[in-house]
Amino acid sequence: MRMIAKIGGWFDRRLQLGAPIREAAEHPVPRDTASWFYVFGSAALVVFMLQLVTGILLSFIYVPSAAEAWSSLQALNHDVTLGWFIRALHGWGSNFMVAIVLIHMVQVFLFGAYKYPRELTWIVGVFLLLMTLGMAFTGQIMRFDQDAYWGLGIGASIASRVPIVGPALVKLMLGGPIIAGATLSRFFALHVFLIPGLLIAFVGLHLLMVLKLGINEWPMPGRIVKRGIYEREYHELTKKDGAPFVPYAIWKDIFFAAFILLAVAACALYFGPFGPTGQPDPTIIQTVPKPDYFFLWMYALLSLLPPSMETPALLIGPVIAIAGLLLLPFISGEGEKSWRRRPIAVLTVLLLAITFGTFTRMAQFAPWSPHMNAWSGNPVPERFVHGTTALERQGALVFEAKQCRNCHSLGELGGQRGPNLDKVAVRLTHDQLIRQVIQGGGNMPAYGKNLSPAETTALVAFLQTLHPAGQAPARDASRELVVEHDKRPGAHR
Amino acid sequence: MSTETTTPTISNDNTLSRRGFLMKLGILFNGLVATALAVPIVGFLLSSITRGRANGYLSWVPLGPITKFPEGETRLATFRNPNVMPTDGKTVDTACWVRRVAGDQFQVFAVNCMHLGCPVRWFPQSGLFMCPCHGGVYYRDGSRASGPPERGLFEYPNKVQDGLVTIQTGELPTPGQTAALAGRKSPCA
Questions:
Q1: Same domain, residue pair A348 and A391
Q2: Interface test with B, best of A285, A299, A309 (most B CBs within 10 A)
Q3: Predicted pLDDT of residue B1
Q4: Least CB-CB distance to B176: which of A161, A289, A307?
Q5: What is the Cα–Cα distance from A176 to B47, expressed in whole angstroms?
Q6: Whole-number pLDDT of residue B10
């Protein structure tokens, strides 16, 4: 024991770090901050360290070349001992990191921790969030598969819409005129050098400010933040009702960090690594690209926005969102901290959570995407062809052969881009059906040039049978009058 | 202790000491060197843009003999991008949809949807291109049919030369740059 103390002493005389570290560790924090609500920041840091370690390990094998990346990932998955596990840890670590950073942010927002004097801590935190998302996106590119390739194409399409400099931005982003070797290399540089370097520097700043300014006290309704007197009040609070951070508060951080690491490891072990999906070969077009989990909401948004709104929303939306986050501590830098007295703050969080949650959920089903194989793969339910005439059956064949099923479902199966047609005859009359098929409209292409008159007749005959047994098909009352009128003697003069 | 009086201090008055002057000169010198170095560094960073000026990436690429493409039909063709780097692997192989309208008259479409660039697929039975991502649909002549795209499919300039269908290509077609790519002036230019 004395030997260790002696060696420690030898180092400390030269480094002189012992005293400042002890001071930082034992600085008094308000007692009520030793809470399970205050563990997310440290958990994010721990997951970040896991990402650093597993990322370095992956780089032992991974080859950042468009020609080799995909096969080096296959080698990691199948040939290198435990390569699959390190990949899985890194992939799940990424998901956990985004989730924990978001939870941390919501907690900080609801507890008013961004208010005076911690504005800059919040602003640095906003940049940390953006960098975390940047790591998630560039990480998806590292898994150089079909999703990564077409994901880059989507990124390029968005960048190209920036007025004037769009095309130049695309070439800067891709490192050339197309998605190729230079593209992967530059995203590798971003993912492995540039963003992590900035992340480490910003995490250092973030932590330094937490130490210098003290951890945010538990917000009490009615305890108002005021510039100039807050520091004195906080100082008194830590003096009167404070406890040393180590070990009084840190044990919860330590336990939660271990729990999160265990959860990442469990997911990695149980679910395994993410992909890679098919080879990044642009001549294989039988692919349905989808972004990773945390960008699914964007996939939904881009399908549901009206086309004319899309470019403004894509280009101006992020600017407004980021500006809003950065300006938040200046807009409401003082006043109530407690979420019990900040209903708008609570409602904002709920609204955003529900919005993003709904978009994410919808993107998992993607009802806006045509089912590319529905026309050839899904059977027509028997009840729809039972007892039909030859013409109607012919119509059912036309319905399948012309890919109507890719966008319209019958029974449970088929695309959801257009409406389900189980009861279409109740909604549209014979003439309306013909018009809709030939001219399209709504969000449907016109089929006039691609259907012969005979095919149209058969198709509409089939569609007219699609109504529930007890419900008559829609009919045009005026048409019957015309027919009646025509039947009368002397109608045709 | 007499040395203490001679230790240099940062003077408050405006007189320029010898060391103060040297420091400022040193900073100026560093500034000049940094500027000189910044020129090649920025030049390197922007090289992918500057090389592309004046359609520097575009060239004519053959898709195959004209007999490969029956009249009135639309077929998938593949070509190798004209600019290849050794690390590109399969990414320089590109697909496109070739429609032989009649005789020597062709339309060659990019597979990239004009919404966000996903690969569209051709359905000859219904005569439609459909995009699997957000449901963009195009007619056989590439014009927009429905869904989120704001315009028709991107068309490569094409010609028939020595019995080969050739297209002018070299850049990824994206919604923002298609006008410039097709040799047409964009309305904003």
A1: no
A2: A285
A3: 42
A4: A161
A5: 8
A6: 56
